[in-house]
Amino acid sequence: MIDAQQFIAASTQRVLAFAAHPDDLDFGAAGTIAALSAAGVEAQYCIMTDGDAGGFDERDPQETARLRHEEQRVAAARVGVQQVHFMGERDGYLEASHEVMAKVVRLIRQVRPTIVMAMHPERNWDRIQRSHPDHLACGEAVTRAIYPAVENPFAYPQLLQEESLEAYKVPWLWLYGAPKERENGFINITDFFGQKMDALRAHFTQHPDVAAMENFVAQQCKLNAQRGQLPEGSLAEAFHLVAVNADDTIAGF
Fold first, then answer.
1. Keywords for this entry (predicted)?
2. Are 148 and 219 in contact (CB under 8 A)?
3. Are 199 and 75 in contact (CB under 8 A)?
4. Is residue 248 part of a domain?
5. Tally: H helices and E strands in the chain
6. CA dihedral (248, 15, 134, 145) positive or negative
7. Least confident range of 88-92, 121-125, 170-174, 203-207
8. Whole-model pTM?
9. Cβ distance 50 to 69 under 8 Å?
10. 150 and 170 in contact (C-beta within 8 Å)?
11. Does the bond joining 148 to the residue before it have cis omega, within 30 degrees of 0?
């Protein structure tokens, strides 16, 4: 198990967190983002689809997308995030295509984060709702973009030639929504759980039963803390932490 808490204290300068839909990050990582923000770390979000197929009320998809953009901006601000990028892909149609990966590479090279967060690219059979096809595509696109494209100056050469975006080696990839057997890092968010819940409540179009949602999230965070062997009464978020460029990393291995 990796000591994920150390990153909160000292090792992180900037975080770029990707999600398939508005509210995905608030379920999976908002407590950690709040802790990082409180420690002075800059965090930015990238929402890959507009969320236009989500919700329970009958409304025009364009209006749904507009509302969900606003919900995500409000939710992000509640955990200290001021910059939210919207990639504009269609909800339910996200693919790890070269068009999408080029957008991911562009943004990572612009932001140059210490940690990239994304949804996990492997299907979670214990709770298949975590494995919406857009979630898997988010994880696959970001993972494939990080290695090798972001750090390869010959990948998507227009980014260097036309936009002067130089190759960049991402130190860490943190994947959320992972199958339990992949999770190797647990962040204690006990002091930031209230902010996480406030962020989730901002997504009013998505929660027909707010109390049930809150109870579910609290139980999941409690179980995460137990699996991470954190002190009794703690609440935690769980990640699959991947060292992309560590001290012993060499090209291609």
1. Zinc
2. no
3. yes
4. no
5. 9, 7
6. negative
7. 203-207
8. 0.94
9. yes
10. yes
11. yes
Instruction: Record the tokens describing residue 114, joined without a space.
Output: 């210490």
CA 178, CA 28: separation in Å to the nearest integer? 10
Residue 249 lies in a domain: no
pLDDT in tens, 16-64: 999 999 999 999 999 999 999 999 999 999 999 998 876 566 667 888 8
Any domain includes 250: no
Q: Cβ distance 179 to 125 under 8 Å?
A: yes
Cα 22 off chain centre by: 10
Tokens describing residue 178? 């992972």
Structural domain contains residue 251: no
Give the bridge partners for 175, in sequence order.
118, 240
Q: How many CB atoms lie within 10 A of CB 176?
A: 24
Q: Please check whether residue 156 is in contact with residue 105, taking contact to mean a CB–CB distance below 8 angstroms.
A: yes
User: Can you name the residues that pair with 46 across neighbouring β-strands?
Assistant: 18, 85
Report the CATH number that the domain containing residue 222 is assigned in CATH: 3.40.50.10320
For 96, the domain range is 5-243
Of the candidates 214, 215, 224, the residue with the CA atom closest to the CA atom of residue 190? 224
Q: What is the mean pLDDT of residues 211-218?
A: 94
Domain count of the fold of the chain:
1
- Report the C-alpha gap between 136 and 125 in whole angstroms: 13
Cβ atoms of 185 and 4 closer than 8 Å = yes
